Fold this sequence. Notes:
Layout: E1 4-5, E2 10-12, E3 15-19, E4 27-33, E5 36-46, E6 49-54, E7 66-73, E8 75-77, E9 85-88, E10 104-106, H1 129-132, E11 142-147, H2 153-163, E12 168-176, H3 178-190, E13 197-203, H4 208-227, E14 231-237, H5 239-252, H6 266-274, E15 278-279, E16 285-293, H7 302-310, E17 313-318, E18 321-322, E19 328-329, H8 343-365, H9 372-389, H10 397-411, H11 414-417, H12 421-427, H13 430-437
Parallel strand pairs: 9-13, 11-16, 11-17, 12-13, 12-14, 14-16
Antiparallel strand pairs: 1-7, 2-3, 3-6, 4-5, 4-7, 5-6, 8-10, 15-16, 17-18, 17-19
Helix pairs in contact: 2-3, 4-5, 6-7, 8-9, 9-10
Amino acid sequence: MHKVYHRIEEIAGNVIMVxxxxxxxxxxxRVTWKNxxxxxxxxRMNGERVSLQVFxxxxxxxxxxxxxxxxxxxxxxxxxxxxxxxxxxxxEPRDRGPSISENMIPIGGPSVNPAKRIIPRNMVRTGxxxxxxxxxxxxxxxxxxxxxxxxxxxxxxARIALQAEVDVIILGGMGLKHDEYLFFRDTxxxxxALSRSVxxxxxxxxxxxxxxxxxxxxxxVAEQYALQxxxxxxxxxxxxxxxxxxxxxxxxxxxxxxxxxxxxxxxSQLAARYEKAVDFDSAGSITILAATxxxxxxxxxxxxxxxxxxxxxxxxxxxxxxEPFGSLSRLKQLVNxxxxxxxxxxxxxxxxxxxxFKETLEKxxxxxxxxxxxxxxxxxxxxxENELMSLSVNIPLEAALDLGWQILADCFEPAxxxxxxxLTEQFWPKDKxxxxxx
Length: 438
């Protein structure tokens, strides 16, 4: 039986402070007063001075409220009944369905022992050419989607949730507007993907501390599914809101701020979540895609800056498309040599020619005369942007590779592409081969 404390020493916003002994970091407590009750979590200890973040907020809590420590950290339920359900950031049902209380598992545990990991070896198909062809997503990879406000990063995540060839989708929303939450829920439901999905949604109106729990709950549930030999894709949005919640609590705790007011352990906090991505040697895998907004389109902002040191590449979302320059999947070479033998050649050639197109645009803007080669690059670049870069394009990898060959053949002669003749003989469109010989 845990001791109950009847005096709160200090209340600062949503944080209360009590004097207690035998308490552990991140332990849960239940705060009860005349007009209500709420869970709280230990976020700081200084001797017997224990600070707790109250889930429901500190408003209305009297100093004589009762605080009872529960003896364990935050837990969440795990069962097959989670699929198709929507929960809050603290694991309570948001969809008016029944609560799930069996098989409680702790959240926020350590990352997987490296001895249990294997080298990533499988591609995650998404149906998006700018990912599948040019920056292939690999099982157990951790990748951020760097974006600015106004870009369609949430629709992109929803589309990936619908099309990714995985067994389970776990979506964690942090600081979402209510209509963004409804968009995710309704989109997955309308397209039949909700049955393989679990949603943990924190909205901007919910307690700040729940925002910090969303990644931990998502990843704890993902790990359990992965241990059942499932391929799990975890989609998180928005990690900048997660970091801002950390900053808000740090300011309340009067911690010494670091860069732009963020706490000094921002890197460690982000890494603790991203490092949960894993491919088990005898079970399934966890892959993480996390939207990270960049205030002012500033990649040196502390959140994207620290994220870049942790993850294995990044996607840049600009002008409603994934930009080929700057976007990077550092693990793509582990799988794109196993898909089709022309995959890497198409990837490299088309990006090189697109770089030439960008240079030609600059020449055109400065009034230089366009050569015949420049005209070909202009034609090519327009088709590349409309038929492959556009996020509206939805085709399998093999069809995207065939389309790449068709675009090249419509704009260039085989020798102009620099592609080895062995590949052009096999993959160059037949109708274009005949016209080239004539």
